[in-house]
């Protein structure tokens, strides 16, 4: 009887493999000293070297002394795990300080920290939806899986608007009664396409049509805004966004997710969201390291212009070699391949023949036909590494595999 289950699971996995969408994980040996140069193991456990071109550690905070030293200090002082949920002995001074730092960063009254931004999206959106019997979500068609999962869990109506289209969103809002609870959900910088949302226009619509606006700033925090507060800060519309979601795991280089909002909203989520309540809290050292990272990112305003200059240089080298990439206004540079098998083969060749690590991005992370090599650079990537990447891409893209 047991085999019925195992056969079914194997069949599903095999179908995935047959469709070319089975994920293989590259085993890395990450060095704080040499990053973005990494070592990795092949299938025979032989060690090779490559440059990582697909990390979200945009500002290299995960390997910075600021974060490492603070984490070490608090691990020595407090140990590693928190040993409890937030409600049952798992709230330390470092958790409170982190929530204060996040609220301050986003100019909101308060913040709540979760074990990841996925969890923060999922449990917050589900909880907001469930609380109103007749809530309607208005969701951008490109929203992340964590957002979709959260909305689905609430079992409320979901209306999808065209990607980044304020006009389409307006049409949908106009058709709904003013008094009906409505939650507009979008990202600010889209993780795979690198497109950017018109947050100001969305904030105006939210106000006019009596809706809550929830924005995922996961790929924007630390990278946009004078102090790294994200795209809402850059577009001057933070006050019009009711809930900002962010991560500590990308530009801030640690781990964890959060929401920042007014006190009434965070009090509500803190009291009703299962994904906040029923899980062990983050280690205190991680919280302290995150505070150090936020403070460093905030205080060093020149990091962002330097980083965006870096992105411009990379794109200059790509253009020079006629590499076809998505000319979006963000820091994420997808090179469109449009075919699963080719995308995997190109990535493999880049890794083993050129020492360039860029993970193939295939369905369901992107739509079919939009398979790409998503390039992300960090502050530590050098111009020589950028030029070598551009040369290598030209070599693999313009010759038969
Ligand atoms: C848009 C978006 N939201 C949320 C998440 C989840 O973030 P975390 O890694 O903190 O769980 C991701 C992760 O990559 C993301 O791309």
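^ structure tokens above, recovered residues below v
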């Amino acid at each position: 009887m047991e085999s019925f289950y195992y056969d079914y699971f194997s069949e599903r996995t095999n179908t995935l493999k047959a469709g070319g969408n089975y994920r293989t994980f590259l085993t890395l040996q990450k060095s704080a000293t040499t990053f973005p140069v990494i070592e990795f193991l092949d299938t025979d456990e032989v060690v090779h070297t490559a440059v990582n071109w697909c990390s979200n550690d945009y500002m290299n905070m995960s390997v910075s002394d600021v974060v490492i030293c603070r984490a070490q200090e608090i691990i020595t002082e407090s140990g590693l795990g928190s040993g409890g949920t937030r409600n049952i002995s798992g709230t330390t001074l470092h958790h409170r300080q982190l929530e204060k730092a996040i609220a301050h960063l986003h100019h909101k009254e308060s913040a709540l920290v979760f074990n990841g931004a996925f969890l923060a999206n999922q449990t917050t959106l589900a909880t907001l939806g469930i609380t109103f019997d007749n809530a309607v979500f208005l969701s951008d068609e490109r929203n992340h899986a964590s957002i979709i999962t959260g909305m689905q869990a609430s079992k409320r109506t979901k209306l999808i608007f065209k990607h980044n289209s304020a006009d389409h969103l307006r049409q949908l809002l106009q058709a709904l009664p003013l008094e009906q609870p409505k939650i507009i959900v979008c990202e600010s910088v889209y993780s795979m396409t690198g497109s950017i949302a018109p947050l100001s226009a969305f904030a105006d619509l939210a106000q006019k049509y009596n809706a809550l606006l929830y924005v995922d700033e996961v790929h924007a925090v630390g990278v946009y805004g004078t102090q790294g507060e994200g795209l809402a800060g850059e577009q001057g519309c933070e006050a019009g966004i009711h809930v900002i979601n962010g991560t500590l795991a990308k530009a801030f280089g640690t781990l964890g997710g959060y929401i920042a909002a007014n006190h009434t909203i965070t009090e509500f989520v803190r009291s009703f969201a299962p994904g906040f309540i029923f899980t062990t809290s983050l280690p205190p050292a991680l919280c302290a390291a995150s505070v150090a990272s936020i403070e460093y990112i905030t205080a060093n305003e020149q990091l962002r212009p330097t980083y965006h200059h870096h992105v411009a240089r990379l794109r200059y080298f790509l253009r020079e070699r006629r590499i076809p990439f998505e000319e979006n206004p963000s820091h994420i540079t997808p090179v469109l391949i449009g075919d699963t098998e080719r995308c995997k083969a190109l990535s493999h060749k880049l890794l083993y023949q050129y020492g360039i690590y860029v993970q193939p991005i295939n369905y369901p992370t992107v739509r079919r036909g939009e398979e790409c090599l998503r390039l992300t650079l960090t502050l530590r990537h050098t111009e020589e590494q950028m030029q070598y990447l551009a040369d290598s891409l030209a070599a693999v893209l313009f010759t038969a595999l």
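The chain has a mean pLDDT of 97.
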